[in-house]
Amino acid sequence: MWSHRGSVSPTEEGLREMTQLVATYPQIFKRWLGPTIPVITLCHPDFVRSVLNASATITHKNMFLSRFLKPWLGDGLLLSRGDKWRHHRQMLTPAFHFNILKPYVKIFNKSVNIMHAKWQRLTSEGSTHLDMFEHISLMTLDSLQKCIFSFDSNCQESPSEYIAAILDLSTLVTKRYYQFFLYMDFLYYLTPEGRRFCRACDLVHDFTDAIIQERRRTLATQGIDDFLKIKTKSKSLDFIDVLLLSKDENGKELSDEDIRAEADTFMFGGHDTTASGLSWVLYNLARHPEYQEHCRKEVQELLRDREPKEIEWEDLAQLPFLTMCIKESLRLHPPAPFLSRHCIQDIVLPDGRIIPKGNICSINVFAIHHNPSVWSDPEVYDPFRFDPKNTQKRSPLAFIPFSAGPRNCIGQAFAMAEMKVVLALTLLRFCFLPDTEPRRQPDLILRAEHGLWLRVEPLE
C-alpha cells in the first residue's frame, strides 16, 4: 500500500540510501508514492535536460507540495503557471539586473556586521559553539527585509513579530508535508497548527500590504519622476519600488495582490536557501582548514589597504577561490536538494523512452551532484572541480543548485552576491573549527538535525 514512501526518508540515512541508489541507477529510476502515484526520479544531466529545458508550458511545477504554500505565497513566481508565470517572469527580470542589485551590497555588509558584533559578544562571554543556521537565517532575513521593503526590524538583536511569523510558516509547511492525514485542507485548518498557520499568514500579508499602500501614497504624492530622482540619489530603490514601477509592453502594471505575492515569495525563497548555502560552506571550510585559510588570504589581499573593511560590488569578481569553494559546497550540500515537475505532455528521454503526460518527475539535485558517473569521488569536498579549466569538460546540467532552464531561480545573482559578501567578511574576522558532526536533514531545504554547530574563534 505504501510502496516506497518510507524507503528514502528525509534523514541522514535517507540521503545515504539515495547515494547508493544513484550509484546503482545512474540515469533514472521509478519509485511509488503510495499505491497509485509513480515518481520518475532523474539523476543524470543528459536525462534532466529533457525536463528542465522543456517549455514551462510542458512541465509545470508539481503542485503536490506547492498547494500548502499557496495560502501564504499566492500566485508568485514560485507557484504560478502558464501565461501568468511567463508574464510575471518578464516583468520581474529587471528587478534582478545588476544595476538594481549593486546597492544591495551595502545592505549585506551592514547585516553581516550586526551578526559579527553579536558573535564577538558571545565568544567574549565564552559561547564559542554556535549554530550557524540560527544566526545566519536571522541575518539573511534582516537583509531581505531591507532589500525588499527598506524596513529595518532589528531582528538580529530583538524579537520581530513579522520575522517570527516567516520562520513559523516555513516550519509549519514542512511539518504538514510529513503528516499525510492533514493533506486535506478542511482537516488541517481545524487543528491548532492549521489555525496558527492562518494567523501567521494574516500577519505576513498585513505587513506586506501596509508597505505597498504606504509606497503607493508616496508615489502618488511625489509623482514618478520625483520619486525616481529621490530614490536614485539615495540609492534606495528596493524590490517593492521596482514592482510598483514595472509595466509590461502594453503598459499594464502589477496589481497589489501580485506585488504582495512576489514580495512574500522572495522572502520565503531568499532566506532559507541562502542561509543553508552559507552554513554548509562554513561547515566544509571548517573541515578543510587549508581551503579556509586560502579563502582568508584572498580576502585579506583584496582588502589590504582599505578601511573600513567592506566588500563592494566590483570586489565580487575578484574572489575566484572563494567562489570555487561556494560552488563546491553547493554541489555537495545543495540547499534545495529536490525539484519536481508535473508533465502535461509526453517527455522523450535521450534513450527513446517516454515519460507519459500526467506523471511527476523528481529532478534529484542531490543525486545529480553525488552521481559517480558524473563526478569523480563525489563525496569529497574539492573546490578545484570549479576551476574554470575543469568546468569546460562538464555538462552545465551537472551542477544545478539554482535549477536550470526557463524556470531557473530568478534570484541566483542576488544569492551569490550575498554569499560572497557574507563569507568574505566572516572569514576575515573569524576562524571556524568542526564541532559535533551534523546529521543532514533534507526537508524543503537541506538542514542539519538539531542545528549545524561550529566552533567560532575571533581573529585579531
TrEMBL record:
Its cofactor is heme. CDD domains: CYP4F. Its main location: endoplasmic reticulum. Gene3D superfamilies: Cytochrome P450. Heme binds at C409. Keywords: Endoplasmic reticulum, Heme, Iron, Membrane, Metal-binding, Microsome, Monooxygenase, Oxidoreductase. GO terms for cellular component: endoplasmic reticulum membrane. InterPro entries: Cyt_P450 (IPR001128), Cyt_P450_CS (IPR017972), Cyt_P450_E_grp-IV (IPR002403), Cyt_P450_sf (IPR036396), Cytochrome_P450_Monoox (IPR050196). The keyword Oxidoreductase applies. It is found in: Endoplasmic reticulum membrane; Microsome membrane. GO terms for molecular function: heme binding; iron ion binding; monooxygenase activity; oxidoreductase activity, acting on paired donors, with incorporation or reduction of molecular oxygen. It comes from the Eukaryota. GO terms for biological process: small molecule metabolic process. Pfam families: p450 (PF00067). Belongs to the cytochrome P450 family. This is Cytochrome P450 family 4 subfamily F member 115. It comes from Otolemur garnettii (Small-eared galago). The gene is CYP4F115.
